[in-house]
Design goal:
two-stranded antiparallel ribbon, 188 residues, 5 helices, mainly alpha, disordered C terminus
Length: 188
């Protein structure tokens, strides 16, 4: 549902093939703990309130409103905790991959593969951190549910031009005019 298999696979591949390149020795253990945390939060989010029926006694007569409003509140809260765990898992796995596999790719001058692997993490991290994207399930007030997976493919068309270009554009750089490589150059 969340499209997180690549995170687990990348961690295994990074450790299996490139563990000798790590500069931070406890990083694999940290990633492992983040994986466990993500799995536990996922299970909790699926089991805690999501599967309750609205006529469950403790949903009745709530200060949060109707049974649906109370159920929606706690379901969204559970998935917010999952989002926090997923964000941390993405961040730490990204660091593990950057400090192991990407070092080897840089040495082998496989720059396009470096970009692809790096962007698989940068895009979802930026969407969560800077755009407030909710990964997982969201309950809406109008009795709708939305499920959002981690997106790993870039958007290839410009939706709108950002005011300040940066690492989290969310659109392909080819959609924008080229800038001077001189950081002190004034725009034309």
């Amino acid at each position: 549902m969340l499209n997180l298999a690549f995170v687990f696979d990348d961690a295994v591949r990074a450790l299996a093939g490139y563990a000798n390149r790590l500069t931070v020795a406890p990083l694999p253990a940290t990633v492992y703990l983040m994986q466990i945390d993500g799995i536990n939060h996922y299970q909790y989010a699926l089991d805690h309130y999501l599967t309750l029926e609205l006529d469950t006694p403790f949903l009745q007569n709530s200060s949060l409103g109707t049974p649906y409003q109370k159920w929606a509140h706690f379901t969204n809260e559970d998935f917010s905790l999952l989002l926090f765990a997923v964000h941390n898992l993405l961040r730490y796995t990204s660091r593990l991959v950057h400090e192991s596999e990407l070092v080897a790719l840089r040495e082998d001058e496989q720059f396009s593969e470096m970009k692809r692997v790096s962007n698989a993490y940068t895009m979802p991290i930026c969407e969560i951190r800077f755009r407030g994207k909710a990964i997982g399930l969201t309950v809406h007030p109008d009795q709708r549910l939305s499920i959002t997976a981690v997106r790993t493919e870039p958007i290839t068309r410009a939706v709108r031009r950002p005011l300040v270009p940066g690492p989290c554009w969310g659109v392909s750089r080819s959609s924008f005019p080229r800038r001077s490589t001189n950081s002190f150059a004034r725009p034309a």
